[in-house]
UniProtKB/TrEMBL annotation:
Subunit structure: Probably a homodimer.
Task performed by this protein: Catalyzes the condensation of 2 ATP molecules into cyclic di-AMP (c-di-AMP), a second messenger used to regulate differing processes in different bacteria.
Similarity annotation: Belongs to the adenylate cyclase family. DacA/CdaA subfamily.
PROSITE patterns for this protein: DAC
Membrane-traversing stretches: 17-36, 48-66
Cited InterPro entries: C-di-AMP_synthase, CdaA, CdaA_N, DisA, DNA_integrity_DisA_N_sf, DNA_integrity_scan_DisA_N
NCBIfam families in UniProt: diadenylate cyclase CdaA
Biological-process GO terms, alphabetical: cAMP biosynthetic process
Encoding gene, per UniProt annotation: disA_1
Pfam families (UniProt xref): CdaA_N, DAC
Protein name, UniProt field: Diadenylate cyclase
Keywords attached to this entry: ATP-binding, Cell membrane, Membrane, Nucleotide-binding, Nucleotidyltransferase, Transferase, Transmembrane, Transmembrane helix
Reaction(s) this enzyme catalyzes, per UniProt: 2 ATP = 3',3'-c-di-AMP + 2 diphosphate
Domain DAC: residue ranges: 90-251
Length: 278
């Protein structure tokens, strides 16, 4: 009887340990998957994953319908993809390893900053753009959100300074060594200046728009970053997100848009009723 009682206690203890270990195991896997999803969100990798999912579904359906030739072709394509995936996802894989090695894998993105820090950052950016708008100083300011921009940061000059209106204005002042290019803000730090951004190839953009505007739109087409542009010719302030260009913004409008877009709950659809492409 004592033996059975002891066996039961040991079994209960093992079950308790199993449950605790299992919960920890599941939480770790869920966290890693969440961070990986946040890493590729808004990037071109999302479209590639969707295409891969379509191929997987098509392969399963062709097998069920006994479409032997189609099934064979899809299986060969899947075999090729297994080899090609590391090459296709090379930027995302490298970015993930860089974040993991540098400790950034566990750092909160801009949209998860404390409310006071985010508000202070927005105020500094708005103050800088208004001063540069008044003096018609061209500027391109990028605010990183969830999608990592390390590859673009690497094209510029590392700064790693606390964001302030004075720092931004000094970077873009005429004939400054760093004024040609974009500054990229990560969190509340100015990560780099004189960064090179991809230009948009959209044919719907007005021909009156210069390189800064096309670079801002091009970046927003490939990531979820927010870019603020000050026109050197007119002093007009614009903002881009997800390929949409919001032009001729007033100080209040720019502030309100930044507040809305940089909140974790911000979505493009939530703003579509408030702002139209101008």
């Amino acid at each position: 009887m004592e033996y059975l009682r002891g066996l039961k206690e040991n079994l209960n203890l093992n079950l308790d340990l199993f449950n605790i270990v299992s919960i920890i195991d599941i939480l770790i896997v869920a966290f890693v998957l969440y961070r990986l999803m946040m890493l590729i969100q808004g990037s071109r990798a999302v479209q590639l994953i969707k295409g891969l999912a379509v191929l997987l579904v098509a392969t399963a359906v062709s097998s069920l319908l006994n479409l032997n030739t189609v099934h064979w072709l899809l299986r060969q394509a899947m075999t090729v993809l297994v080899v090609a995936l590391p090459i296709v996802f090379q930027p995302e894989l490298r970015r993930a390893l860089e974040k993991l090695g540098g400790g950034d894998f566990f750092v909160r993105p801009l949209t998860q900053m404390a409310e006071d820090d985010r508000s202070a950052l927005i105020n500094e950016v708005v103050r800088a753009t208004q001063n540069m708008s008044a003096s018609r100083t061209g500027a391109l300011i990028v605010l990183e959100r969830v999608t990592g921009l390390q590859e673009l940061i690497d094209t510029g000059i590392k700064v790693d300074g606390l964001v302030s209106a004075e720092l931004l204005m000094n970077i873009f002042i005429s004939k400054s060594p760093l004024h040609d290019g974009a500054v990229i803000i990560r969190g509340d730090r100015l990560a780099a200046a004189a960064c090179v951004l991809p230009l948009s190839e959209s044919r719907h953009l007005s021909r009156e728009l210069g390189t800064r505007h096309r670079a801002a739109v091009g970046l927003s087409e490939q990531s979820d970053a927010v870019a603020v542009v000050v026109s050197e010719e007119t002093g007009a302030v614009s903002l881009t997100l997800e390929g949409i260009l919001y032009r001729r913004l007033t100080e209040v409008e720019l502030h309100d848009l930044l507040v809305k877009f940089l909140k974790p709950t911000t979505t493009r659809s939530a703003l579509s009723s408030l702002w139209q492409k101008r």
